[in-house]
Amino acid sequence: MGGLRPSGLHINKPVVFGLFGIALVVFIVTRVYMGGGLAGGVASRVFQIGSRPTVVNPSGAGRGMEPVVNASKLDALPALPPDGTLVKKEEQFKVTVAGQTLNVQVVQMMNSKTDVSNALTVFFLHGAAFSSQNWVDIKTLDHVANWGYRSIAIDLPGKGKTADTISTAHYVDFLSAFIQAMGMTKIVIVSPSMSGGYALPYLFNDPKTSTDRAVGYVPVAPVQTSAFRKQYPESQLPTLIVYGTKDSMAETVLNDLSLLPKHEAAPIEGAGHACYMNNPEAFHKVLYHFLKGLTS
Ligand SMILES: *[C@@H]1O[C@H](CO)[C@@H](O)[C@H](O)[C@H]1NC(C)=O
């Protein structure tokens, strides 16, 4: 009903609401385009990692539109310290999962020069044909410790020096129990290839809370990325997608993980599936860049 006022003025409600709506839209669009953002810039701040500029790929589109980290354009890495500064600590650590106790091989690189009690923990998983030893061999654990972070790698069940095995159904429980038992906080999970079977469900079964379980994610061409396409858009986990440009899995991995709103991609030029083995320096550079961004 239009309603007739005592004055006799006829008010057409749909027209009034329509004009108000148009004015509101114009106001919002103007605010956003002028760079002010809404509510004092909250909208523009939400999409930042640390103090870095946005890494959002709003369209979620595939290759060619990614925010790219180019290893060859990054600064040189800090030099490793003299021998003896970093000390490797290896142990068999007991973890109980679903009533079963496993002995898990853990390697940590200790840095006597830094206090890591409040630092990020960089937690390395590995691919099917690999183990924690590979991260030792290419000095990844040394670099991470040298940068001031807690530096930890494990041998996943049935691999390397972890003889005990568990069923796939308990992969998430295993990771969860291990992280708790080790007292790890502020975790960045580095997860290549086969270890995607552990890290992906752990992080993205419940995508809205993935940031409670990790502060950063570095997938290196993991398996099973397509299984979580529905979940990625709901996660705010900062992610660095690392892949070798010669890896046949790269396209699928990139298309899937690009659905994560806070991702950057770091192609390692000319490298294959195990790109960190093919070009450790480029891998270390992009990792260093990502970790600095999380803490700055
Ligand atoms: C990275 O930078 C190098 C040197 O400037 C350039 O040749 C290369 O094409 C760049 N790669 C990407 C993926 O942009």
Automatic annotation (TrEMBL):
It is found in: Cytoplasm. Keywords: Cytoplasm, Membrane, Transmembrane, Transmembrane helix. Coiled coil: none annotated. It comes from the Eukaryota. InterPro entries: AB_hydrolase_1, AB_hydrolase_fold. PANTHER family: AB HYDROLASE-1 DOMAIN-CONTAINING PROTEIN, PROTEIN ABHD14B-LIKE. This is Abhydrolase domain-containing protein 14B. It comes from Elysia marginata.
